[in-house]
Specification:
With 377 residues, the protein is an alpha/beta fold. The protein contains 11 helices and 11 strands. The protein is 35% helix and 14% strand. Strand 2 and strand 3 form a beta hairpin. It binds beta-D-mannopyranose.
Length: 377
């Protein structure tokens, strides 16, 4: 596979790392985090992030919410260090639920986030919020009235402000030993050009989407949350024009992200499994380079950072995915972090990071040793 990808990607090698201008806010927890991310990107390094790394893994989960020492990590079991960044999801906090949509207790999430930051790491939060109009989950796309319903003037606005209120309450509870808010990255309303979430492309107009994002940031700022770095993270497989068609604006966004996964196509199209894998990897690398190039150009002009806000190849069917595919995809881009999705403890094939004994473990150790990647150690 390496030979094929190398040949196809020679053109991509001409891209130069563009670098970002550097964010302007200083003196706040968010400003400090932005400066730290900016410094990493300027050196050609990025934080490796893993969703839910500290609270469960491929075949285990933290049971004792109050007392578990939070030292376990699938990633650390392989390379000796936890990821530099850990991702968590807030889905369910808006309802006042005790645990999120993947059964992660919110008190445990708070403890894990604060503990990761205390160890020198960074945390990022996504939010698979329920559908405020239907009561269904984030993937309930049965009504295109929902965004209008929650915006100012909509019948559900009051209720939605309560949802934002509960989310803000949780974020305001994320404090270090001195009572100071921990810095964090928040990327609400993600994968918004596709139409699989209730805030998706076909579910609202660009103006309504932008109003939703701005309402969220304005509300959080009004609650005193000066610790949030805001990420905008559309899905991939779109044009640059589509990417920016719902951009909330430079005053609202600090990081331009993209969520891009690798998928295998129908085996009937290929002569062998090896060819099928190679085609998927080539597509992934080219697509990643394409997205990150226009994002980096915009970021350099607008003083923003860029990131791969979600990525992965479910079940990691190619054992050298880390060094031959992922690192190639981001090779020429000043990304400040790259997040791979969760290792579900209750779905054996649903994993995006290595674990003890996984086929990609050796390659992941190379990825860990690579000069670009930042881990906790
Ligand atoms: C998806 C899957 C689901 C999960 C959801 C929110 O990509 O991992 O199992 O519930 O993310 O974390």
């Amino acid at each position: 596979m390496k030979t094929i990808t190398n040949t196809i990607l020679t053109a991509g090698a001409a891209l130069a790392i563009i670098g970002c201008c550097g964010p302007k806010e200083t003196g706040t927890p968010a400003g400090e985090l932005l400066a730290r991310l900016d410094a990493a990107a300027a050196e050609g390094k990025f934080y490796y992030a893993h969703q839910d790394d500290a609270v469960y893994g491929h075949s285990w989960r933290v049971e004792d919410v109050e007392n578990d020492p939070l030292e376990r990590s699938d990633v650390a079991a392989v390379c000796g260090s936890a990821p530099g960044m850990v991702g968590f999801d807030l889905g369910g906090i808006e309802m006042g639920d005790a645990a999120n949509l993947d059964s992660v207790d919110f008190a445990l999430m708070r403890r894990a986030a604060v503990s990761h930051v205390a160890k020198g790491g960074i945390v990022t939060f996504s939010w698979h919020s329920r559908n405020p109009l239907t009561g269904g989950d984030a993937w309930d796309i049965s009504s295109a009235e929902v965004v209008e319903y929650v915006l100012d003037g909509g019948a559900g606005h009051g209720m939605f402000m309560e949802w934002l209120g509960r989310t803000a309450d949780f974020l305001l509870s994320l404090r270090d030993a001195d009572g100071k808010l921990i810095p964090l990255i928040f990327r609400p309303w993600h994968e918004n050009i596709g139409s699989w979430f209730w805030w998706g492309g076909k579910l609202c107009t660009p103006e309504q989407y932008i109003a939703l994002y701005r309402l969220t940031r304005d509300y959080m700022s009004g609650r005193g949350l000066d610790n949030i770095v805001w990420a905008y993270s559309p899905n991939s497989d779109i044009s640059a024009e589509e990417y920016f068609s719902r951009y909330p604006g430079d005053e609202y966004v600090d990081i331009l992200g993209v969520d891009q996964y690798q998928f295998l196509e129908d085996p009937a199209k290929f002569a062998s499994e090896q060819e099928r894998l190679a085609a998927a990897s080539i597509y992934f690398i080219e697509r990643m380079r394409f997205d990150l190039k226009y994002m980096a150009e915009f970021a350099a002009e607008h003083g923003k950072l860029i990131a791969v806000s979600e990525t992965g190849f479910e079940g990691i069917p190619y054992p050298k995915w880390w060094t031959e595919v992922l690192l190639d995809g981001v090779a020429d881009a000043p990304v400040c972090y790259v997040l791979t999705w969760r290792n579900a403890w209750d779905k054996p094939g649903h994993f995006y990071a290595p674990f003890e004994g996984s086929a990609d473990a050796e390659d992941f150790i190379e990825f860990y040793r690579n000069e670009r990647t930042i881990f906790l150690k």
